[in-house]
Amino acid sequence: MPASEPGLASDLARGAVAGGAAGGTDRWLNPAELLRGLVRDVPDYPQPGVLFKDITPLLADGAAFAVVIEAMASGHAGVDKVAGIEARGFILAAPVACRLGVGFVPVRKLGKLPGPTHTQTYNLEYGTAAVEVKTDAFAAGDRVLLIDDVLATGGTAAATAALIRRCGAEVTALSVLIEIGFLDGRANLPGVDIRALLAI
């Protein structure tokens, strides 16, 4: 489904949710089709040469949003916490946590959390960045589902996974909307179960 047909994607999502509500979850539209229809490519943003994946049309469509949240939560029973990576990972992780009936933990950029934190630094193309989490965010042995919107180079996700492990918790899987395959983010996440609704 081309990105120029968001109306069709939206209509199909509403039909999928209605079918699911009637008990026919096998009738739900493949979430990958919704993502193809409702995620916009924005070239040269936030800098030249970058193709930004704009998920705001998906978020604005309640029926489509419900389908992808259900899909991201599927197969992750038994986790203790859901962690979301700032910032768009928050939007996805919080409803997934609600769907699974567990707590949500925000993994934030440096300096955004009050109180004692653990910090993990990672390399960017030019310089470094850091993510952090509160020291009491996880109990030892917690099974944690990690959520983000896009897996690209995998640097931020790998740093977050390392941060969770430093807290004594276990990363059960990384669930994302979109995986950009040619950037080979999986190479930075050995041993992590990576699940993407759409691989491009």
Give the helices and strands, then pairings.
Blueprint lengths: L5 H16 L9 H8 L1 E4 L7 E4 L1 H5 L1 H12 L7 E5 L2 H13 L2 E7 L7 E7 L4 E7 L8 E9 L3 H12 L3 E10 L14 E6 L1
Parallel strand pairs: 3-4, 3-7, 7-8, 8-9
Antiparallel strand pairs: 1-2, 4-6, 5-6
Helix pairs in contact: 1-2, 1-4, 4-5
How many E strands?
9
Oligomeric category:
single chain
The CATH level-2 architecture of the largest domain is identified as 3-Layer(aba) Sandwich
Q: Low-confidence parts lasting 5 or more residues at pLDDT below 50?
A: 1-5, 16-27
Name its key features.
globular; disordered N terminus; seven-stranded mixed sheet; single chain; 6 helices; 9 strands; 200 residues; alpha/beta; Rossmann fold; 2 domains; two-stranded antiparallel sheet
Description:
The structure is a single chain. By secondary structure, this protein is α/β, with parallel strands linked by helices. It has 2 domains: 1-74, no CATH class; 77-200, Rossmann fold, CATH 3.40.50.2020. It contains 6 helices and 9 strands; from the N terminus they run H-H-E-E-H-H-E-H-E-E-E-E-H-E-E. It has helices at residues 6-21, 31-38, 56-60, 62-73, 88-100, 155-166; strands at 40-43, 51-54, 81-85, 103-109, 117-123, 128-134, 143-151, 170-179, 194-199. A hairpin with a 7-residue loop joins strand 1 (40-43) and strand 2 (51-54). Helix 1 (6-21) runs antiparallel to helix 2, helix 1 packs across helix 4 and helix 4 (62-73) crosses helix 5 (88-100). It starts with 5 loop residues before the first helix and ends with a strand. Residues 1-5 and 16-27 have low confidence and may be disordered.
